[in-house]
Design brief:
This protein is mostly beta strands and 195 residues long. Helix content is 0%, strand content 36%. It is built from no helices and 17 strands. The strands form 5 sheets. The protein has a 7-stranded antiparallel beta sheet, with no helix packed on it. A 3-stranded antiparallel beta sheet has the order 2-3-4, with no helix packed on it. A hairpin with a 5-residue loop joins strand 7 and strand 8.
Length: 195
């Protein structure tokens, strides 16, 4: 399972001293943050960058789904806020649900996949770095029949059906793929474009 390492830096050996009596303390400056724009779309945290992978680091509880681990079986599933099991413990690894309503899981047998809030498998995920493929430029790779590769978005919509023999992640709206032995560059509709 992927782990996020947080490092805190602590000042060592520094002490705070009061200002000398002949020096006036600095006057605090009031700053006002701009009011949030109510018409602005919600911002994803951390910010998605087109050519950077987006790890599954969402906060718990989106779509009323909370991870739990069954110590007896060693598997994970999802409960709702009330504590009722809504998706039984059946995954070797499970990730929090994202804002779009899908979560990455690792199932015994089929391996990595993307599920909806009911636990229905939407698509098999392309394996990357010992986990499910990252979302990059808002798409992740999926595996279809015959091992063909396609792409899914963060809402669970298969935007490019699996048909490629090989496929790289998207970057700035383009991805390198291989189809029938031919190297191509495609756009987010799956159409060939200039590299």
């Amino acid at each position: 399972m992927r782990h996020l390492l947080l490092v805190a830096l602590v000042g060592c050996g520094s002490t705070s001293r009061p200002a000398p009596s002949n020096t006036a303390a600095p006057t605090p400056v009031a700053t006002t943050a701009p009011a949030p724009d109510p018409d602005a779309p919600p911002r994803e945290e951390p910010k998605d960058l087109p050519c950077e992978p987006r790890m599954e680091t969402w906060a718990e509880g989106l779509h009323d789904r909370y991870l739990f681990h069954d110590d007896a079986t060693g598997l994970s599933g999802y409960k709702n806020k009330a504590g009722a099991i809504v998706i039984p413990a059946q995954y070797r690894e499970a990730y929090p649900f994202g804002p779009g309503g899908i979560a990455a899981v690792n199932q015994p047998g089929p391996g990595f996949g993307f599920i909806d809030p009911h636990g229905t498998l939407i698509a098999r995920a392309h394996a990357m770095d010992n986990g499910p493929d990252y979302f990059q430029d808002k798409l992740a790779r999926i595996i279809g029949p015959g091992g063909k590769v396609g792409y899914i978005d963060s809402t669970g919509t298969i935007v490019i059906a699996p048909r490629f023999d090989e496929a790289m992640p998207f970057c700035n709206g383009k991805a390198a793929v291989k189809l029938a032995g031919q190297d191509l560059t495609i756009d987010k509709t799956g159409s060939p474009v200039a590299p």
